[in-house]
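Extended Data, panel c. Modelled sequence:
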Amino acid sequence: MVMWPAVTLIGFLVLTALVVFMGMQSTARYERERAEGTSGARHASPETVGAARAA
Protein backbone atom coordinates (compact mmCIF):
# COMPACT_ATOMS: atom_id res chain seq x y z
CA MET A 1 0.00 0.00 0.00
CA VAL A 2 2.77 2.42 0.85
CA MET A 3 4.87 1.29 -2.07
CA TRP A 4 3.09 3.18 -4.88
CA PRO A 5 3.11 6.61 -3.20
CA ALA A 6 6.82 6.12 -2.46
CA VAL A 7 7.54 5.11 -6.08
CA THR A 8 5.55 8.10 -7.32
CA LEU A 9 7.45 10.49 -5.04
CA ILE A 10 10.83 9.07 -6.02
CA GLY A 11 9.93 9.22 -9.71
CA PHE A 12 8.79 12.83 -9.36
CA LEU A 13 12.02 13.80 -7.61
CA VAL A 14 14.17 12.03 -10.22
CA LEU A 15 12.34 13.70 -13.11
CA THR A 16 12.55 17.10 -11.41
CA ALA A 17 16.29 16.66 -10.93
CA LEU A 18 16.64 15.67 -14.59
CA VAL A 19 14.80 18.80 -15.76
CA VAL A 20 16.92 21.02 -13.50
CA PHE A 21 20.13 19.38 -14.74
CA MET A 22 19.14 19.81 -18.40
CA GLY A 23 18.20 23.44 -17.76
CA MET A 24 21.56 24.13 -16.15
CA GLN A 25 23.41 22.65 -19.13
CA SER A 26 21.34 24.65 -21.60
CA THR A 27 21.86 27.88 -19.66
CA ALA A 28 25.60 27.28 -19.39
CA ARG A 29 25.84 26.66 -23.14
CA TYR A 30 23.83 29.82 -23.86
CA GLU A 31 26.04 31.93 -21.58
CA ARG A 32 29.22 30.45 -23.13
CA GLU A 33 28.02 31.16 -26.68
CA ARG A 34 26.95 34.67 -25.73
CA ALA A 35 30.35 35.39 -24.15
CA GLU A 36 32.17 34.11 -27.25
CA GLY A 37 29.94 36.16 -29.53
CA THR A 38 30.60 39.47 -27.78
CA SER A 39 34.36 39.00 -27.55
CA GLY A 40 34.89 37.71 -31.11
CA ALA A 41 35.20 39.74 -34.29
CA ARG A 42 31.97 40.70 -35.97
CA HIS A 43 31.28 40.80 -39.67
CA ALA A 44 30.86 44.22 -41.28
CA SER A 45 27.92 42.99 -43.33
CA PRO A 46 25.71 39.97 -42.82
CA GLU A 47 26.21 37.03 -45.13
CA THR A 48 23.36 36.11 -47.41
CA VAL A 49 22.22 32.56 -47.01
CA GLY A 50 20.57 30.77 -49.87
CA ALA A 51 20.60 33.76 -52.19
CA ALA A 52 21.43 33.06 -55.84
CA ARG A 53 24.14 35.21 -57.36
CA ALA A 54 23.61 36.65 -60.83
CA ALA A 55 26.63 36.24 -63.08
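The radius of gyration is 23 Å. This feature is highlighted in the accompanying rendering.
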